[in-house]
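Wed. Picked up where I left off yesterday with Putative adenylate kinase. The coffee machine is broken again, so keeping this brief.
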Amino acid sequence: MTDDERSASGPDSDRGRADRVAVTGTPGTGKSTATALLDDAYDVTHLNDRIKDDDDLWTERDADRDTLVADLEAIRERLGDWSGVLDSHLAHRFDVDRVVVLRCHPETVERRLRERGESAATAEENAESEALDVILSEAVAEHGQESVYEIDTTDADPESVAAAIRAVVEGDREPSAGTVDFIEYIGGGGESRGDG
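Structure written out below (tokens, as returned):
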């Protein structure tokens, strides 16, 4: 197959099990909850926990957001030649075969983050980011539409989300970037629902 044929058919056109899968999404979409259910089947790296536990993986504390600023280059070095499932809102920034973007209605994201103890400003900022497809856009720009899989977690239980992620890892699900839309949340006072 020539490079042109490979580009036309996409990197995953003969889907099988992927070696490296990112599970990403706005905070509050259910990444850690769903990937915890996959720990027995795959080598799952919960990146945010590793960053919190290792001072060499972050550069500073963002006082306004009460969060750590990750050192992506240090994380790349630490991950080395890894394989498995990478769980983090930053996971799409790394070299992977497939990217699962968990999506959730912005009102639900905001509620979940408030229940976790996040400030109203942080919860609202993340809800707006979700409505604007920020992480989805980054994932598509970095990896191409043919490698991105959206999963709407709004009304889904963790087990069904984990099963959908497993289907992506195993090559049993088609790419689906652009199937979930919450943009009406921004202009419509939070009244939209996802399609996917």
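Quick read: The chain is about 40% helix and 15% strand.
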